[in-house]
């Protein structure tokens, strides 16, 4: 009885093994393409990425200008203005 069960299961197992071999072959063929496309993706910048970077840089520059303007206003208000401060242009809080 065991021999009959083993004989009946052999064709089913052969299909699994063949599928595994085909999957491995397909993976081996597509691997260089995937690696090359990943390298190109890392080496290039999309328009959306460039826009995000430009927006980030603009926000950082705007934040820096705001910090400098607040520091200048504080110095002018406390009478410790620098020679480069434009106290007439500084708006009080």
TrEMBL record:
Keyword Signal: yes
Record's compositionally biased regions (Basic and acidic residues): 50-75
Disordered, as annotated region: 46-75
Keywords assigned: Signal
Domain of life per record: Bacteria
Protein name, entry field: Lipoprotein
Signal peptide start and end residues: 1-20
């Amino acid at each position: 009885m065991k021999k009959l069960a083993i004989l009946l299961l052999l064709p089913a197992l052969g299909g699994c093994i063949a599928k595994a071999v085909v999957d491995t072959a397909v993976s081996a063929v597509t691997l260089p393409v995937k690696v090359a496309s990943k390298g190109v993706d890392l080496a290039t910048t999309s328009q959306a990425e460039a826009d995000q970077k430009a927006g980030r840089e603009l926000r950082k520059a705007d934040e820096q200008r705001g910090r400098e303007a607040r520091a200048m206003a504080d110095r002018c208000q406390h009478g410790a203005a620098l020679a480069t401060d434009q106290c007439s242009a500084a708006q009080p809080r």
